[in-house]
Design goal:
6-stranded antiparallel beta sheet; 27% helix; 6-stranded mixed beta sheet; 24 strands; alpha+beta
């Protein structure tokens, strides 16, 4: 059987693979033949019982959005009718937010920045009377340049256009783009109520929760169970899921996810302004990293004099200074080997990376707590990790810093060093632990390293 040639939509768009397949409507990748630029192309066949007058009105409404240009929206380039099907063309940039969420929960500062950007783009759609957007993580794109993200809402009226065509129940059931995922829907959407800008505030609040917690707030065993949870359950507490979540962020999300629209932020500018105010009180991201520089919570530990003495009372003091940490919070390891006395072994897991590019030196951390410093044979002081060979200018103190592992979380503290310890941009206060996360940058004196596990 002869292979059919690839379809050219409207004589301009070379159709590629389906990004989101469906019976009534599907989203494809495509190439604009005039420039070879990649685009996303929605194809929708008319409903079984199409109202052509209504469909033409929907098409005209969609075409008005081609004039909407916003840095946080994909651009609707063209809308038309070709070979018996409606088509809408948008630019294709970045990668879906879902890909980032599948890797890990995002740093708080990054999640808030993405959300704040999206409030701006969504508000531009609201100004065109477009509400009830598809804001699933699959329909939000993130374009990253260096350490800077640009968040882009991909639904720029596409869902509204498809709904306006008037598909029947069976056609909707066979077309993912027409389905409402109860994990990402406001109560009024699930109850077929009136939608407003507050509807999209709720949906964006769901996405913000997932970026922080690593999971959606309301997920049942079935779609019906999820619907019930979405309609009736309070917002889960983020602290057991993400230990460093400040109370103000919990309050912000709870307001965004109020069950009744009148109790939410009334519109995107108000939601965005509240996020921006919270951002001002949060630590900044470290240069060259998506990680947070300072952390929100710290606590004091045993002083260096006790550490030098090595007495049992000093070990007891350090243990009493350690607060209870939620074992399910944030960072967990796949396995932890046995204890030897009071020393915890995590062989082959935690390490420091020193140097630049592909020539980094790997320094394993064999046990915890681990003291980092410079060995001094004359004084019989030997830290657990001797960094003297890498510190050519002797900027590291003999007992410079200490890394802890407590119930699934890593911490670092400065031990009163002369040339200080920094975590990202934050200079540590001596003997105060700070939460240490994967890929954080640590600076001891003039020596810089990356923490991994």
């Amino acid at each position: 059987m002869a292979q059919q040639p690839p379809r050219i939509v409207n004589g301009l768009y070379h159709l590629g693979p389906a990004l989101i397949p469906g019976a009534a409507a599907a989203l494809f990748s495509a190439t604009y033949t005039a420039t070879n630029d990649p685009v996303a192309l929605l194809l929708a066949r008319p409903p079984a019982r199409a109202d052509h007058t209504h469909a033409q009105q929907a098409l005209r409404s969609a075409r008005t959005l081609t004039t909407l240009l916003h840095p946080h929206l994909l651009h609707l380039q063209e809308a038309g009718f070709d070979q018996g099907e409606y088509f809408l063309v948008t630019d294709l940039r970045g990668r879906p937010l879902r890909e980032l969420l599948n890797q890990e929960a995002l740093p708080l500062a990054r999640a808030l920045e993405i959300t704040q950007q999206l409030t701006q783009g969504i508000n531009a759609l609201h100004s065109r009377k477009v509400v009830g957007l598809d804001l699933r993580p699959e329909r939000i794109h993130i374009e990253t340049a260096g350490r800077y993200d640009t968040a882009l809402a991909a639904d720029i009226g596409l869902r509204g256009f498809l709904q306006a065509l008037g598909y029947d129940e069976q056609e909707r059931a066979e077309t993912p783009l027409l389905q409402t995922d109860p994990r990402y829907a406001a109560p009024e959407q699930l109850q077929n109520g009136d939608m407003s800008p507050a509807t999209d505030v709720y949906t964006l609040g769901l996405v913000l929760f997932e970026m922080i917690a690593g999971r959606a707030p309301f997920v049942g065993r079935s779609a019906a169970d999820t619907r019930v949870l979405q309609l009736s359950q309070p917002v889960p507490n983020l602290r057991p899921l993400r230990g460093e979540t400040p109370p103000e962020l919990q309050t912000l999300i709870e307001q965004a996810l109020s069950k009744h629209p009148s109790l939410r932020f009334p519109d995107m500018p108000t939601f965005g302004a509240t996020i921006e105010a919270l951002q001002e009180r949060l630590p900044k991201r470290a240069p060259g990293s998506s990680r947070l520089a300072p952390q929100l919570y710290s606590f004091r530990t045993a002083p260096l004099e006790s550490l030098k003495s090595g007495t049992a009372s000093a070990q007891s003091a350090a243990a009493q200074a350690t607060p209870a940490v939620d074992p399910d919070a944030d960072i967990t390891l796949d396995h932890v080997d046995q204890h030897e006395g009071d020393t915890l072994h995590i062989p082959g897991r935690a390490r420091l990376l020193l140097g630049k590019s592909e020539r980094k030196k790997v320094v394993p951390i064999a046990r915890f707590p681990a003291i980092l410093g410079r060995a001094d044979p004359n004084r019989q002081q030997r830290p657990d990790i001797d960094l003297a060979p890498y510190d050519t200018k002797r900027s590291i103190s003999r007992l410079h810093a200490r890394i802890w592992y407590e119930r699934g979380l890593f911490y670092i503290e400065d031990l009163g060093s002369v040339n200080k310890t920094a975590l990202g941009e934050l200079e540590l206060t001596p003997y105060e632990r700070q939460l240490l996360r994967r890929h954080d940058t640590i600076k001891l004196g003039l020596l810089q390293m990356i923490f991994e596990y």
